[in-house]
Structures are given as C-alpha cells and as structure tokens.
Design brief:
The chain is α+β, with helices and mostly antiparallel strands. 27% of the residues lie in helices and 27% in strands. Strand 5 and strand 6 (174-179) form a beta hairpin. The structure holds zinc ion (2 copies). One zinc ion is lined by residues 158, 160-161, 165, 180, 182-183, 187.
C-alpha cells in the first residue's frame, strides 16, 4: 500500500495549480523511470511506481482530483477495489512502453524491438548514401504461418485462460493482466505442433532493407523503422527496428557539427616565407596559399567546404590548422644555416619575444 503520509501532488513533483497536462507529463516521466521492467529486482522502485500510479489515478481524473483537493485522501473503505493499470498505461504511456511486457496491454502482443548499427564513412555522411542493411530477425514461421500448429491439424481451446489468451490477476490495489503461459497468449493449443518450428511459430529470417541517409547525417543518429523488429510468438506482429548510425574515423578529418577539421604540418621555412601547400578536402586535394609569417596553430577557414546542414542553413566550413614542424634531426649543412639564422635573429627580435623580454625585465630587472 502506498505511503499514507505523502501528498499526491508531492509524489508527482507538481504544484497544486498544475494543469492536467503537467500532471500527465510528470507521471509519464516518473513511470518511465520507476517502471518495474526498467528496475528488475528493485523493491524500492516498485513501491515508488505503485505510489505514483496511485497518485496519478487520483490526480489524473478531474472528479477524483476535485474530491481529493476538497477532502484529502480517501479512507480505506472508500478506496476503489483496484486500479486498472493496463488501461492507465495505454492512455498515458502508449507507445513509449513498447518493450514493457506486463503492463502495456495494447503493445504486449508485438514482438521485441531490434537494434542494429550501420557504419558510414565520413564521405558517405557528407554526401548522403543509400545502404542495403542485412540482418537477422525472428519472423513468423512460413510452414505454420506463425500459428505453431502443423497445417491441417486441429487445435483445442486453452484450459489455462479459457481461450482468451490472457490471465488477469490482482496485486494489492492493482489489477494486471499478462499473457497466458500455457498457450503463449494464443488462446488455443494445437494438437500437433508445427514440424518446421516445433510449435514455436517463429523462424530466423534474413532481412534486407534499403535505407537512404541524408547528406550531413550525424554520428549516433537513430533511424526508426516500424515493424522490422522481431515478430511476436503470440500474434506474429513485429516490433520495431532501430538503426544507429556510426560514422567511421577518417585518417585526416575530424568533425565538429557541420565543420570539418584537419591539421596540415608545414616546415619552419614554409611558415616563415609562405608558399603554396597541399590541403585535403572531401572532394580531393587542393592548393592553398600559406601567407608569409604564418604562426603555429593558425587556422585557415574554407567557407562552405564542410558538411551540409539540415533545414536550409549554409554548409559548414573546413578549418585547416597549421602545425609548424621543427626538425628533430638536422644535417651539418642545415645546422650551420640555422646557427647563422640564430645569430642574425638575435639582433632582430620577434614581436612576441620582445614583449616577453620587456615583461621579464619589469619583473626581475635586467
Ligand atoms: Zn511453424
Ligand atoms: Zn491460454
């Protein structure tokens, strides 16, 4: 039984002035969080779930809410015999509970949802691509059309559920229903089980599905395809298929939203003198002018050379970060040249060096 001390509004985390929609939304959120299917073997969650369901049973109904506002909680004698949780769930949570079995009556007869991943290259993601996905799912057995009985054999009504396929039971205040275990919810028991599937009614089937992914699709995007998941043993109706987009790492590019990032290493003389450098783009290699005196970390922006964006916005940019590479080994000739450069540069300080030396002098004296 729910905690008698707590206020229903408090339990749903809403104010006394909350609108019907706010109450519904609060219940929806909490019910998803504390649903027993999501918290197996957690009696605290189950208790909490019952409490919020009771609170919603009252506050979710205009008459009961007025009654509660006026007189407070019903006394034990006035309590209803049961709350039909299945009904409440169908109206409040509907499709959200597609995979929850004990409560969602309307969706219970649908098979499991399936998740698969599809791997796209960065170029495919940038341009958009059509992919043929192949995967295995449980589909109704062809031989018995999913009925589980050998074709032509008779079947008897199930004794466990009286042929309804459903067993109702009461748990405290709650009336629940579940599929009959004896007949798997079919309501009938075939006299001869199907020889192809041993009476299961399902068979593994390879599916092919062609899906197109739009230009600019992002890593982690989930595509939802109805009724391409596993079929239910009871009804043959299929759950849904979720396709998760994984974009493979690119050897040169990384991605930040619609922008493409790459690093181009150049030598010190190139950075100092400037010149033409090779820069990769998604369309191939291009030449770019590196301005003389380019500093390490400098970023060149190539407008519109990134990935497309949805909703009519301009495409992203490509950002080229210049990395100045200092030689780790030098030849004798190079050493001599660099030494000569060092001597000439001592008299010709760079702006940043100059500022630094001045600050050093201010702090510590010359
Ligand atoms: Zn079969
Ligand atoms: Zn049955």
């Amino acid at each position: 039984m729910a905690n008698p001390g707590r206020d229903y509004y408090e339990q749903l985390g809403v104010g006394r002035e909350a609108s019907a929609d706010e109450i519904k939304a609060a219940y929806r959120r909490l019910a998803m969080q504390f649903h027993p299917d999501r918290n197996p073997n957690d009696p605290t969650a189950e208790q909490k779930f019952k409490e919020i369901s009771e609170a919603y049973h009252v506050l979710g109904d205009a008459d009961r809410r007025t009654q509660y506002d006026r007189y407070g909680r019903m006394q034990p004698g006035q309590m209803p015999d049961f709350i039909d949780v299945s009904e409440m769930f169908d109206s409040v949570l509907g499709d959200l509970l597609s995979s929850f079995t004990p409560f969602g009556r309307s969706r219970r007869n649908v098979g499991q949802d399936k998740r698969i991943e599809v791997s796209l290259s960065l170029v495919e993601a940038a341009r958009g691509v059509e992919k043929t996905l192949e995967y295995e799912r449980a589909a109704p057995c062809d031989h018995c059309s999913g009925r589980g009985g050998e074709p032509g054999s008779a079947s008897d009504p199930c004794g466990g559920c009286g042929g309804s396929g459903e067993v109702r039971y009461q748990q405290g205040l709650f009336r629940l229903s579940r599929a009959c275990a004896k007949c798997e919810g079919r309501g009938v028991i075939p006299r001869t089980p199907c020889t192809a599937c041993n009476g299961v009614g399902l068979a593994k089937k390879n599916e092919k599905l062609v899906l197109s992914f739009p230009a600019g699709v992002e890593d982690g995007t989930v595509r939802h395809v109805r009724s391409y998941g596993d079929a239910s043993r009871m009804t043959g109706a299929s759950g849904d298929l979720e396709i998760i987009v994984k974009i493979a790492a690119h050897p040169l590019f990384s991605r930040e939203g619609a922008d493409l990032l790459c690093v181009v290493p150049v030598s010190f003389p190139q950075a100092a003198l400037g010149g033409m450098i090779d820069v990769p783009t998604l369309d191939g290699r291009v030449k770019m002018r590196l301005p003389p005196g380019t500093q390490p970390g400098h970023q060149l922006r190539m407008r519109g050379k990134g990935l497309p964006r949805f909703g009519g916005y301009a495409a992203g940019d490509q950002l080229v970060t210049i990395q100045v590479e200092v030689p780790s080994e030098v030849s004798d000739e190079q050493r001599a040249l660099i030494e000569r450069l060092a001597v000439t540069m001592k008299e010709d300080l760079q702006p940043q060096q100059k500022t630094f030396l001045e600050k050093l002098k201010d702090l510590f004296g010359s």
